[in-house]
Amino acid sequence: MKILSYIYYLITSIRNFLYDKEILPIHRVPGVEVICIGNITVGGTGKTPAVQYFTKRLQKMGRKVAVISRGYRGKRKREPLLVSDGYEIFATPKESGDEPYIHALNLNVPIIVSSNRYKGCLFAKKHFGVDTIVLDDGFQHRKLYRDRNIVLIDATNPFGWGRLLPAGMLREDFRKAAKRATEFIITKSDLVSEREVERIKKYLKKKLGKEVSTAKHGVTSLCDLKGNQKPLFWIKGKRVLLFSGLANPLNFEKTVISLEPAYIERVDFMDHHNFKKKDIELIQKRAQNMKASFIIMTEKDLVKLPTDVPMDNFFVLKIEFTVLEDNCLKEIGGANKNEEF
């Protein structure tokens, strides 16, 4: 594993060097401000609700916004693919990938997927006349110039065990990558102690010289599969089964624990898992054996459920990204286009 991680380090370092020295071209989108929401570790930092938070914040400032994503694991025949124009959804979760589809359900802005994010931005500008792009998970996509790099740090595993893939969870060397970041947001800060948050903050501010904010991913509602909201206190004192296809299902469990259930069991699937009928039957059998009152999933998993299986007592826990300590985002959306904030 160490050898593979070292090879991965060499590849990413050479690639970044070529972009830093402008040997490989970086493309600007004229007249459009590009704000990237990304991370340095793989999965689990909370990008999806963060993207929605910043998109809504920019809209309130009067910006005309689109969200661009690569559409991870989406199976589509053409690119760029318009997932939503802000009013109507034109793609399935299988075509777009799960995160863009969730954006389409929750945002009234154009959602576009393209492996070439630059072409996706040009498409958004041409067809929707946008002045701002929120780039979903594009920190390592160096081909596209961005005005602001907002990097999310998961408080429960901030530095990916200090190792690059596959031995750890780092996508690239942390210190080198941090130089490209405009600022950091420590996410899921409510899932660790205040002392741990301060330790992470101190490292990012004093060692790396970056502005740092903190945020939490709080529960907003419990919904049945028809979208009807149920009181969160229903969970208190009940037996609950969780299932998910997440990079870090433990954080999901910690969130549900805050609602004070009597007992929890968990069924974990691979990240971005597409659920089949047999998976649902397995979950239902597990729930029956443990006498669970609720079977709870995330919104990310909801869009990948099969439609040919009855799912009684299945509920979705909706999470909202909230900035608690806003030290570095006060000027967001306030700079001139294609200038550094």
UniProtKB/TrEMBL annotation:
GO terms for molecular function: ATP binding; lipid-A 4'-kinase activity. Pfam families: LpxK. This is Tetraacyldisaccharide 4'-kinase. It is an enzyme of class 2 (transferase). GO terms for biological process: lipid A biosynthetic process; lipopolysaccharide core region biosynthetic process. The lineage of its organism: Bacteria, Fusobacteriati, Fusobacteriota, Fusobacteriia, Fusobacteriales. Signal peptide: none annotated. PANTHER family: TETRAACYLDISACCHARIDE 4'-KINASE (PTHR42724), TETRAACYLDISACCHARIDE 4'-KINASE, MITOCHONDRIAL-RELATED (PTHR42724:SF1). Its EC number is 2.7.1.130. InterPro entries: LpxK, P-loop_NTPase. Transfers the gamma-phosphate of ATP to the 4'-position of a tetraacyldisaccharide 1-phosphate intermediate (termed DS-1-P) to form tetraacyldisaccharide 1,4'-bis-phosphate (lipid IVA). GO terms for cellular component: plasma membrane. The keyword Cell membrane does not apply. NCBIfam families: lpxK. Keywords: ATP-binding, Kinase, Lipid A biosynthesis, Lipid biosynthesis, Lipid metabolism, Nucleotide-binding, Transferase.
